[in-house]
Amino acid sequence: MPKPHAPWLKLYGKNHKKTLRYPKGSMYDEVRAAAEQYPDQTAYDYFGNRVNYGAFLATVDAAARSLVSLGAKKGDVISVCAPNTPEAVITIYAINKIGAVANVFHPLSAQNEIRDYLNLVHSQIFVAIDVSWDNIKPILDQTSVQRTIIISPADSLPLFSFLGYKILKPKELRKTVAQILIKNKKTMSWNDFLSRGTLVTGETREKMRADDTAIILYSGGTTGESKGIALSNLAFNATAMQAKNAFPELVVPGNTILGIMPIFHGFGLGVGVHTMLANGLTIAMLPKFDAKRFDKILDSSRANLIVGVPTLFEAMIRNRKIRQMDLSFIKVAISGGDSMNLELKKEIDKFLFEHGAPIEILQGYGLTESLSMTCVNLNDVKRDGAIGVPLADTFFKIVEPDTHHVKKIGKIGEIVISGPTLMKGYVENPRATNEALRVHPDGRVWLHSGDMGYMDADGFIFFVGRLKRMIISSGYNIYPNEVEEVIMRADEVLLATVVGVDDKYRGQTAKAYVVLKDGIKGDNEVREKIMELCRKNLAKYKWPRQIEFRKSLPKTKIGKVAYTELINDRAETPIDKKTKRKKSKVK
Question: What is the DSSP letter of 100?
Answer without folding.
Answer: -
